[in-house]
Design goal:
Radius of gyration: 25 Å
CATH topology of the largest domain: Glutamine Phosphoribosylpyrophosphate, subunit 1, domain 1
Helix content: 25-40%
Distance between the termini: 10 Å
Number of domains: 3
Bound molecules: 2-deoxy-2-amino glucitol-6-phosphate
Shape: globular
Length: 613
Amino acid sequence: MCGIVAYIGGQDATPIVVDGLKKLEYRGYDSAGIAILDDGKIEIRRAAGKVALLETLIEKNPVQGTTGIGHTRWATHGAPSELNAHPHLGMAGRIVIVHNGIVENYLSLKEELVSEGVVFKSETDTETIAHLIEIFYNETNDLTAAVQKALKMIKGAHGLVVMSTVEPEKLIAARLGNAGGVALGIGENEMFIASDIPAIMGHTRKIVFLESGQFAIVRRDGFSIHDLEGNPVKSEIQNIPWDPIFAEKGKYRHFMQKEIHEQVRSLSDTLSGRVDFQDYRIILPGLNLNKEKAQKIKKIFITACGTAAYAGMVGKYLIEHIARIPVEVMVASEFRYCDPILEDGTVVLAISQSGETADTLAAMEEARKKGATLWSIVNAIGSQAIRIADGCISMQVGPEIGVASTKAFTAPILDLYMIAVYLADLRGTIDRDRRLELVKDLLTVPSLVEKALENDRAVKQIANRYKDIKGALYIGRGVNMPIAYEGALKLKEISYIHAEGYPAGEMKHGPIALVDKDLPVVVIATQDPWYDKVISQIEQAKARSGKVLAVATEGDELIPTIADEIFWIPKTPWLLSPAVTIIPLQLFAYHIAAFRGLDIDQPRNLAKSVTVE
Ligand code: AGP
């Protein structure tokens, strides 16, 4: 997905827009550009590559003005290049736009425009929007009407901002469907627009989020929000509690490293306000539940993408074990197209850090269409996955900037555990003693994670020995089987080393053929109900000269005699162990990628939130 930033006010827009782009670069970073209204003219600066290259270009060829728009791109149509970088102009050079999303009918629109004599300069679908607005402006002599007409012609999901020399006193922002958010930041006689709030937080905490099918007319002294017919709609101004410092690296080399080490605080934050210490009870008002509604739940479908889906796989074990409610987990890109059977009493629970992932939002809409109750566990404040759900739990861990998700993986594990205890308590599946035991175990997790993080140096030494591997197999059982998948994904996405997560019990059904002295096997072998079974997997791998790197519980005396490397974690209640066993695997992937000198916060081909299919 792409990053959008815009400013209109009394300050110089260039540094505000460029700094905002840097804060959004994690959303897409193969090219970037800005357009500034400079003395009645639109000045554009664009560059392929990171925002830093755009900054260098602007230093060489400065541009100033009090109104500007900017964009960081994650290419969908047209290779990453200066030519395809946004912003894009209409033919007469009076209208310019930045855009997030895909114009699904752009080919037919482009053919029609070309037949009318429009000359395209880029390979992007976005440029069709700029030309459409310009053509409609020539007909209506009204920028707002021109934008409205263009919005009705383009198919797909979009977030966009329009600036012009014809009506320079306004910017027009619009949101159609789920192509990432469009947020308005309200300043003192100045306004900010961005696709995500880290770009705005340093200037104002007063934020309004556009809903799908809305556009905003934004002037320096205020704004109005309308539906596509132009009717005014009510908007809620939110005060965002996030501290801008979250969006800074501080003493760390990378945001991912900071966010791995932030998990002691972020796990405490996701628990805060949700434990009643009088009765050691979980309280989740965001789910709008009571005993009667809880009793009616017959099944929970968990749907998400990537790392969030692996957290959902842990949730299956937790909810089924604690609350005895059947749970099915399905990645959202499958759920949305498999015509799922959602009988009465089904809850569909979506998990999403960004709250804007296209597949996950589409799965939520599919669930809504089929009449299911819709819950979500989301991190990004004001995002679509919060707004469209019947009940929501905020991860409340602050913005996650690193593309490889870490704190937004461990937080939903605890949120799912709390949902399990909350449902079991409401339905009477557990008694008071069991509830006290489960809640007290939950409260130990932040300090257990802190202990696991204290082994960072040891993990780094292991990573140094394995930084040149060509592949790895990750295996686990039971509640830690999803950790094999998530550990493998971390290694893949930041070090570009192929790694495969697998249920440990499946080794003998094929993958063991891969094992030899060059293929390390990472095994989650902590003391849990499956421990003995995992031991035999380690021995099977060793018997084939495999190198075994085991995540083990401190004090274990057997594992050091059979494994080649140990990632130690503190003794942890086994139900909650996934939130701790993943810590050394996050660090392992991080250090290997760091040794390999890779771009850890912005890995190649990836974006922080995938708002396209
Ligand atoms: C995780 O490290 C990846 N960046 C990716 O799998 C991510 O978890 C997935 O795209 C889902 O994103 P979401 O949580 O914002 O919906």
